[in-house]
Specification:
Elements lengths: L1 H19 L3 E9 L3 E2 L2 E2 L6 E9 L4 E10 L16 E12 L7 E11 L16 E9 L8 E12 L11 E14 L2 E16 L8 E11 L1 E2 L6 E11 L9 E11 L1
Antiparallel strand pairs: 1-4, 1-15, 2-3, 4-5, 5-6, 6-7, 7-8, 8-9, 9-10, 10-11, 11-12, 12-14, 13-14, 14-15
């Protein structure tokens, strides 16, 4: 019941904000062949549908509601039902810039996020561990630091359990990420912008980990196109993860995604 009330409060707050300000709304539906979250394979090699709604208030502030539904049923290797892995995320954030006009210009996004596993109890029980978590985060990029289109980027995620309980599945801690992005076009298809990315992640105790170590790195390649009939943005992507820490992921991962988003 408390989870339902939290969701209703967030949605009502967002609705009030939408009515009170000029906002840009983006509705997105993403299909991913695997749900890989910060190195963890959360659905055990099963696909997911991930719809979201994003509100940009035009003054740096934004809010987002995101969900993940498993593309197939059954149990995972740890015995948990994929139905219980249904997840809602609520995010409030502020985006800004510092050092404008110099090579050290930094674009950043800072905020709070709640991970709500709606089919499990927030405090958990012996048979159904608590999964809900919260985080404070900051993500940043330095687009003018290096010539040639390479953009260094990084992120810090400070995570903790939504409620203190002996049945928490995930341990609180910090995740650090750093890498770079590189945008380019192909001579054979200049109308399709390409975005390459590389990131490496240090897991400092988050989740069922047994070590504080570099956990994985991810290579990504995405493009984007406009649907001629609706004007929506279509974004396919492909990803490969090299996994280092077996307590995070004991195998390398290859997956793909396809997003369909409409902004109005």
């Amino acid at each position: 019941m408390k989870k339902v009330l939290v969701g209703l409060v967030v949605m009502l707050s967002l609705s009030a904000a939408v009515q009170a300000a000029e906002v840009t709304t983006t509705v997105d539906l993403t299909y991913t062949t695997k749900y890989i979250w910060r190195g963890f394979d959360l659905l055990d090699d099963v696909s997911a549908w991930q719809p979201s709604v994003d509100f940009d208030f035009g003054n740096g502030f934004s809010a987002n509601v995101w969900a993940s539904y498993a593309g197939a049923g059954g149990n995972m290797q740890d015995g948990m039902s994929r139905v219980n892995a249904t997840e809602y995320n609520y995010t409030l954030a502020y985006s800004g810039m510092i050092n404008e006009g110099c090579p050290w210009r930094t674009d950043y996004k800072a905020g709070w996020r709640y991970y709500d596993f709606i089919d499990t109890a927030t405090k958990g029980t012996a048979g159904y561990p608590a999964l809900d978590m919260q985080e404070l985060f900051v993500e940043f990029a330095m687009p003018d630091l290096i010539e040639g289109g390479i953009v260094p980027r990084g992120a810090i995620y400070q995570m903790w359990n939504a409620r203190s309980s002996q049945y928490n599945l995930f341990k609180s801690g910090t995740i650090y990420a750093m890498g770079f992005g590189y945008d380019f076009t192909l001579d054979s298809a200049p109308e399709l912008p390409m975005a390459f990315g590389w990131d490496i992640v240090f897991n400092d105790g988050v989740g069922p980990v047994t070590d504080h170590d570099w956990s994985h790195m991810v290579w990504s390649l995405k493009t984007a196109m406009t649907c001629p009939m609706t004007g929506a943005k279509v974004t396919p992507g492909i990803y490969f993860q090299n996994s280092f820490d077996d307590s995070v992921n004991n195998e390398d991962e290859l997956w793909a995604s396809l997003s369909y988003s409409l902004t109005f």
